[in-house]
Amino acid sequence: MANEKAKGRFHTREIFIALMGMALILAVVITYSGGSLIKDPQKGVPGLAPEIEFQMPGGEATSVRKMKGKTILMNFWAAWCASCMEEMPSLKMLEEHFKDKGLVLLAFNISETQDQLRGKFAGGDMPENLIFNFNKEFLRPYDINAIPVSILIDSSGVVRRVYSGPKNWLDIGIRREIEILLK
Question: For 62-96, how does the pLDDT look when each residue is reduced to its tens digit (9 = 90+)?
Fold first, then answer.
């Protein structure tokens, strides 16, 4: 009986040691990934942002890969989405705050065309780079099931953070995350 208890403690100790080893490995991964686990929306693991080819508001054709070297915040939205529209003023203020510091904000409208929305946005509460001209097939790897969703990509093209749901983009925590990437 005493021998069985000793075996049970031995197995418990082995499990504890294995869990501590896994925690140590996770801590190393987090440390070397810039302080947080970074998920590629497609694979759920650290990785490069899936490609999207699109046209800038001025007509210039570009893509996520061509913008490598810049920190990008991609926001996916639609005008019919009330929470998307609620976050637009703070998103615009975030854009203005970081524009001269290197952040590129790209607001991808996932359902309407530019012609459908022409004249519907009074005032300056919308981001500068409203993207309408892109192939919606490029959204598939991002697995966007609900909007708004925003994806922060570092200058190496790696997805650093996925923000689901509406955000107050003036939040100090969000601004710090972006500032760290811009350094």
Answer: 999 999 999 999 999 999 999 999 999 999 999 99
Distance of alpha carbon 51 from the chain centroid: 14
Q: Are residues 59 and 116 in the same domain?
A: yes
Q: Per residue in 103-131, pLDDT tens?
A: 999 999 998 888 888 777 666 788 999 99
Domain span including residue 116: 53-182
Whether residue 102 is found in the same domain as residue 169? yes
Q: What are the backbone angles phi and psi of residue 90, rounded to the nearest 5°?
A: -75, -30
The overall pTM is greater than 0.85? no
Number of structural domains the chain divides into? 2
**Which residues fall within 8 angstroms of residue 128, CB to CB, at 6 or more apart?**
57, 95, 99, 105
Cross-strand partners of 134: 54
CA distance 67 to 65: 5
- DSSP class of residue 98 equals H
